Amino acid sequence: MVLFYFSCVPVFAFEEPTDKPIKSNLDNQTITMCVDPNWLPYEKINSKNEHIGIAADYLELLTKHTGVKFELIVTQSWADSQKYVQQGKCQILSLLNKTPERSKYLNFTQPYLRAVVVLVGQQSTNFISGLTSISNQTLAVVEGYIYLNYIRKNFPNINIILVDRMEDTLVAVAKGNADLAIASMPVALHFISELGLSNLKIVGNTDIINDLRIGVHKSQPKLVSLLDQAISEIDPVNIAKIKRRWRQVRIESGTDYVMVFRIVLIFIIILAFFLYRYFILQRFSKKQNALNIELQVANQKLTYLSSTDYLTKIANRAKIESLLKREVARCQRYLNSFVLIIFDIDYFKKVNDTRGHQIGDRVLIDIANRANSVLRDSDFIGRWGGEEFLIVCPNSNINGAKVLAEKLRNNFCQLNIEGCKVTVSFGLAEFRIDDSVEDIIFRADKALYQAKDTGRNKVVLESDIT
Fold first, then answer.
1. Among 343, 337, 347, which Cα is nearest to 374's?
2. How many other CB atoms are there within 10 angstroms of residue 253's CB atom?
3. Which of 177, 255, 266, 428 supports an S-S bond with 172, CB 3.0-4.6 Å?
4. CA 105 to CA 211: how far, in whole Å?
């Protein structure tokens, strides 16, 4: 967003990378570990009692680097994990902030992840310029998180509602049981998307920064220096792999300079023509009014032709891409969301090859008309290329867009032009706070390819990608 920037940023000191393991007397030793069981994308204990997330991937790298093995001790909540390490049932906590209270029983490595902490509220909530601006509002906080003591100490007037899990804070706000929730930016975005809480948005920043480290029980003093050395020397290539796994890859697309030159040349020719025409109009003052009207009509036609697909009469690629860029900028400014739908006519080449291009053209026209009859007034549709179309659904979430896509798919199945029937495959992606146009197109395209690879004539969400 324009208001906030976040990233699961590794804060390793990038020295000369090495792939050699560190020699120590802790080789092959097993260290018991407790984690936050529900804190994605940072970490989670899944249904198979496995540790997953960014922290899990880093610890796997540290195992390869140091020879130390980490054994997960399953807990039901973050509060339980902290109790376990205090009682000696586990020797490390995989990811947490350093505090004076925790320093009584833990030593800490250098931080290896950093993220800002934000406030989440309903869509109707006005912007909040920090914790100092909270007045007569309730704030949902996870019991055991460092935010709790910090807020109680520095902002005693804030009304706190305690919950057991991170997602409970957001659900409480979505249902109106709390006015605000506090969370790390990546975690808030993950749960809002995963739980489909479309009535929530990020409404403010805080002065809290999460500097996340490994906490080591004081009974293991040598382990801290070993892990610190490994964190400093870990190969940045492996760090990049972790980032790609837990955050979508940004694809930078090149500029087609040949196409740009052609478009510029066409507009220069058209502009020269109208400038010449305007000069003639000035010389014939008696016809000036009539010819000016003619010029206005021609300009309107030019604008229409430059933004409209000649066959289907919907937005062409340049126009729909422009609308998509505008929607991304709008959502980044006002903290809103939208869903991108890409759909493609299955085996369309076969239609052209066996039934002829005239039938193929009629299929494309009918698809565009049917889509326009189903879409909301606020939705945008354009022909992306060939038999591929793109729909932008503002102020929508992935579940609502899926219903729309299924409605379109069923409608398209009814198409019958001189015995020619077609099916259509769909890929859907929901806008994320740090998305570019290329990012969301990439995810929707991947979902479309999965729809085609798994049988076609179906709707696939980005979350369904395997």
1. 343
2. 10
3. 177
4. 19
Instruction: Give the integer Cα–Cα distance in Å for 293 and 303.
Output: 15
Residue range 145-162: mean pLDDT, rounded:
89
387 annotated active-site? yes
**What is the separation of C-alpha 23 from the centre of its chain, rounded to a whole number of angstroms?**
40
Contact between 415 and 363 under an 8 Å Cβ cutoff? The reply is yes
Cβ-Cβ contacts under 8 Å for 200 (sequence gap 6 or more)? 120, 121, 122, 123, 170, 173, 174, 192
Pick the catalytic residue: 43, 327, 387, 462?
Answer: 387
**How far, in Å, CA of 451 to CA of 343, rounded?**
10
214: left (phi over 0), alpha (psi -120 to 50) or beta: beta
Q: What average pLDDT does the segment 14-21 reach?
A: 45
Residue 253: pLDDT band (50, 70, 90) is: very low
Q: Which residue has the tokens 């792939």?
A: 19
Phi-psi region of 199 (alpha: psi -120 to 50; beta: other; left: phi over 0): alpha
* 3-class SS shares of the chain: helix, strand, coil, % to 5: 45, 20, 35
Contact by Cβ (8 Å): 394, 381 = no
Distance separating alpha carbons of residues 203 and 127, to the nearest angstrom: 5
The pLDDT tens digits of the residues spanning 44-99 come to 999 999 999 889 998 998 888 888 999 999 999 988 999 999 999 999 999 998 98
CA distance 368 to 421: 15
β-pair partners for 460: 427
